[in-house]
Description:
Blueprint: E1 3-5, E2 12-14, E3 17-19, E4 24-25, E5 40-45, H1 51-58, E6 69-71, E7 77-79, E8 94-95, E9 98-99, E10 105-110, E11 115-119, E12 122-125, E13 130-131, E14 136-139, E15 146-149, H2 153-169, E16 174-177, H3 194-197
Parallel strand pairs: 4-7, 5-10, 5-16, 6-10
Antiparallel strand pairs: 1-2, 2-3, 6-7, 8-9, 11-12, 11-15, 12-13, 14-15
Amino acid sequence: MEVFxxxxxxxxxxxxRLVGGGVIxxxxxxxxxxxGEPDMIILHYTGGTSAMSSAKFLxxxxxxxxxxxxxxxxxxxxxxxxxxxxxxxAGKSSYGGRCELNHYSIGIELDNLGQLRLEGGKFxxxxxxxxxVKDVYTEDSGEMPTYWHDYTDVQMQVLNEVCGLLVDAxxxxxxxxxxxxxxxxxxxxxxxxxxxxxxxx
Length: 201
């Protein structure tokens, strides 16, 4: 596949890279192993302070993690690894009878601070940043409510567009969260209400 585009999206895939829509490419030289035909997408949150700071962290040679794409809260897309190269986003993982899912999947990181704690009436992220009440998602289905950094509408729109293009371009059969493939992780968290945005299954 050299070029793949859709009339419904500002993005295209050219030689396994997103183009259009203002996509920024940041080189991640540590990832070199071929991925072949990815057949699943795994969604994550960054836990970082911005999309670009997270992207720069993930491409560092001393960091044993990476991802194919980071999507910012303003809808900015940053691609780190081509879709035909394996990224290190799933870690020890299993789903649908398979293990080591980095070998089969595209990793998308969403700029989001993750789970928050309530301290003195303020919502605080792990990194210490305070999150305004309007940006907090409350999950109250358990015994005690938990608080999470909410995703933005434009971020969800861009995620839809990118996933739609990937579904059309590759044999994608599953779009799951990191927490679906390992009990070690909670991302992308309950604020990513999959049923609200996913339109393909």
